[in-house]
UniProtKB/TrEMBL annotation:
GO terms for molecular function: epoxide hydrolase activity. PANTHER family: EPOXIDE HYDROLASE 1-RELATED, HYDROLASE, PUTATIVE (AFU_ORTHOLOGUE AFUA_3G08960)-RELATED. Keywords: Hydrolase. One of its GO terms (biological process) is epoxide metabolic process. Residues 15-130 form the Epoxide hydrolase N-terminal domain. The keyword Hydrolase applies. The active site is at 199 (nucleophile), 324 (proton donor), 371 (proton acceptor). It comes from the Eukaryota. This is Alpha/beta-hydrolase. Belongs to the peptidase S33 family. It comes from Cucurbitaria berberidis CBS 394.84.
Length: 394
């Protein structure tokens, strides 16, 4: 397999990994899916604009998607696609001696000057978010010509990496520390590295960039942080597109963040509820893909189902929502930052606010794309990352 040669300076050798879900577990999932009921018709769930309505995901979308999931969706095909990329697992020892089994996909370059870039996913995403981007790069470059080392980890608590400990609370800073240690283990301490993220991945990126000297900068496509609006001032220049985005932000804060309140205040309850039925996870997560994407670039049904199926088969939902009960501090990043603005982001933050959170050296506003930029607009997102690298990497 190309792009799988770990850099010579790695402090420890990760183990090559192939994903293969046990057949019995897969069949149990299919049985549960078949037997999972769909709620009866109500006024609210009959409101439908083709995918979701003003009261949430529609019953019709659930019925149609459940049927497709049962009869046509092929998980083994998705496994084959995942395994066509270099995947690894490695043990990362935390400061308290705890050991984390961390999964990551990667494209490693044989160019000694290759720039390491880590891409961090969010919720309800996973490392699968970045497979389209990896596919573009492996078609464009060879291991000898690839100018970057691309590392795409599964965050602790998500899909193929270890869960947070059962004996104490877990914070974004804890995840950031494990991700930093992962990058050091791959030998990127002396050269340094860059980070990129959206959603929770943007929070992890910001903590890493603000905390660790080895991180030389960050690129984000999501800037929402607690009290971000305090960065506004009457002198800010706000474009017409950004004004529309602010209306979208207000709408999200009014009618779109109920899920986050539930994650943050009653994670035990929602974790138990959504682990009871594949259809429950389909409704909860499927709604987010539909409502948070640009209608013109919504990920395909197979893409959405790949993410939800992976969540179900790895039983990760209850351990993937720990970040929601934490007030995220606005950390200033005294390093180069880049920001890609996508209009259908669920909470698009104006450039004038974002540039007050760090040394902004790159900004681009796009006309299409939403919250899942790496899935919706992978070519555009990576073009932005490359442009950012040219001005940020010294």
């Amino acid at each position: 397999m190309s792009f799988n040669s770990v850099p010579a300076g790695a402090q420890q050798q990760p183990t090559p990994f192939e994903l293969h879900i046990d057949e019995k577990k897969l069949q149990d999932f299919k049985t549960l899916l078949k037997l999972s009921p769909v709620a009866k018709e109500t006024y609210e769930n009959l409101q439908d604009d083709g995918s979701h309505g003003r009261f949430g995901v529609s019953r019709k979308w659930i019925v149609d998607t459940k049927k497709y999931w049962e009869q046509k969706y092929d998980w083994r095909k998705e496994e084959t696609h995942i395994n066509s990329f270099p995947n690894f697992k490695t043990n990362i020892t935390d400061d308290d001696g705890g050991v984390f089994d961390v999964h990551f996909a990667a494209l490693f370059s044989s160019n000694p000057s290759a720039i390491p870039i880590a891409f961090f996913h969010g919720w309800p995403g996973s490392f699968l978010e970045f497979l389209p981007l990896l596919d573009i790069l492996r078609k464009k470059y060879t291991p000898e010509t690839l100018p970057y080392h691309i590392i795409v980890p599964s965050l602790p608590g998500f899909t193929l990496s270890s869960d947070p400990p059962l004996t104490r609370d877990w914070k974004v800073a804890d995840t950031s520390r494990i991700m930093h240690k992962l990058l050091l283990s791959l030998g990127f301490g002396p050269t340094g590295y860059l980070v990129q993220g959206g959603d929770i991945g943007s929070l992890v990126s910001r903590v890493i960039a603000a905390t660790y000297d080895e991180c030389k900068g960050m690129h984000l496509n999501f800037m929402l942080i607690k009290d971000i609006e305090t960065k506004s001032s009457p002198d800010d220049v706000i474009s017409e597109a950004e004004k529309k985005g602010q209306e979208r932000l207000k709408q999200f804060m009014t009618v779109g963040r109920a899920y986050a309140d539930e994650h943050g205040t009653k994670p035990s309850t929602i974790g138990l509820v959504l682990s009871s039925s594949p259809v429950a996870q389909l409704a909860w997560i499927g709604e987010k893909f539909l409502a948070w994407s640009d209608p013109s670039t919504t990920p395909s049904l197979d893409t959405i189902l790949a993410d939800i199926t992976l969540y179900w088969l790895t039983e990760c939902f209850p351990t993937s929502i720990y970040t929601y009960r934490e007030a995220k501090k606005l950390l200033y990043v005294d390093k180069p930052i880049g920001y890609s603005y996508f209009p259908y982001e669920l909470a698009p933050v104006p450039k004038a606010w974002a540039e007050k959170t760090g040394k902004m050296v790159f900004f681009k506003a796009h006309e299409k794309g939403g919250h899942f930029a790496a899935l919706e607009r992978p070519e555009e997102l990576f073009a932005d990352v490359e442009a950012f690298v040219k001005v940020a990497w010294k």
